[in-house]
Write a structure and sequence with these properties.
alpha/beta, 2 domains, 3-stranded antiparallel β-sheet, Arc Repressor Mutant, subunit A, single chain, 42% helix, Rossmann fold, 14 helices, 7-stranded mixed β-sheet, 10 strands
């Protein structure tokens, strides 16, 4: 035999209906199943505010909820309400239909439902607050940065200085005429060759960043990713980068990515670091000393899972003729 549901205290139910916005939300959700974003559009309140109201109503049993992808859909199902709630709602509901808010809500609800039927705006309305997570789930975390590389001029020749195993060259090669991967370590170059096998526009050169094996003014851009902290004299390497750049308006640009100044002294012994990162002002000063103009240094947003120091990106140009 089914155990009868125990009556709940009436006061919390009455309190939940004392807020006019919650009454509007209940009326909407009795008419249609809606997401947080869609309710927010109808009642014209921030999603955070709507979410708080939905939590109050949900905790008291007014709502049913259903997962729809990464969104949650809410509805008031009259027959599923506990008897005490159902009786209270039947008494209150008729008083709501004649209000000005009800008329405006009905008009905006019609627009939201039309959007849902006609185009993809309904999807975005349902998941607006979670869209980054949806995109990552569908397409991965790094596609935006990779796609933005398409902005590079296709005719550029780019030097990857201290290429290591070829990570930067791998990203750059589909968007450039030619990439020259330079490293002084034979094992690193071997790994890069293996990684980039089949990339016909990637060349490899062994040499020190203090004396690059490239002619003057031979490349349009140079990148140097997590290398400077290994060098005894970073400014010398930056001067070499400036030397090989073509001083044109469109090109002649260098990008340096390195660590923010930190206190992890063990990196000197474990990984052969000569410098414990760089202060932004020091990195910019080194770029200027090396001959770059229009220099800038910006922090690189970190990955929450990353355990290393923060990163900086420094840019500079060689003055055109």
């Amino acid at each position: 035999m089914k155990t009868p549901r125990r009556p709940r205290a009436l006061a919390p139910l009455l309190s939940s209906l004392a807020e006019p916005t919650r009454l509007r939300i209940l009326r909407l959700l009795e008419a249609e199943e809606l997401s947080v974003g869609e309710v927010s559009r109808v009642v014209q309140l921030p999603q955070s505010t709507v979410s708080r109201h939905l939590k109050v109503l949900g905790d008291l049993g007014w709502l049913t909820r259903r997962a729809a992808g990464t969104a949650t859909m809410y509805q008031v199902v009259h027959d599923d309400l506990p008897p005490d709630s159902r009786a209270l709602w039947v008494a209150v509901r008729p008083q709501l239909s004649a209000t000005a808010d009800a008329a405006e809500d009905q008009r905006r609800l019609a627009v939201v439902l039309a959007d849902r039927r006609l185009d993809s705006q309904a999807f975005f309305g349902q998941v607006a607050g979670e869209w980054d997570a949806v995109r990552t789930n569908l397409f991965g975390a790094g596609f935006t940065a990779r796609a933005l590389l398409s902005l590079l001029p296709r005719h550029w020749v780019i030097a990857d200085l201290g290429c290591g195993t070829g990570n930067a060259s791998e990203l750059l090669s589909p968007h450039a005429e030619r990439v020259i991967a330079v490293d002084q370590s034979a094992p690193m170059l071997k790994a890069a060759r293996k990684r980039l096998a089949g990339r016909r526009n990637v060349e490899f050169a062994r040499g020190s960043l203090d004396a690059l094996p490239l002619p003057d003014a031979s490349v349009d851009a140079a990148v140097c990713v997590l290398v400077l902290h290994h060098l005894e004299h970073p400014v010398t390497a930056l001067r070499e980068a400036a030397r090989i750049l073509r001083p044109t308006r469109a090109g002649g640009v260098a990008l340096v990515v390195d660590m923010v100044q930190h206190e992890r002294a063990e990196y000197r012994q474990r990984m052969g670091h000569r410098h414990l990162g760089f202060a932004p002002s020091d990195l910019r000063a080194m770029m200027t000393e090396a001959g770059f103009v229009e220099t800038g240094v910006t922090p690189v947003p970190g990955d929450p899972e990353a355990r290393g120091p923060g990163l900086l990106a420094a840019t500079g140009r060689i003055r055109g003729a």
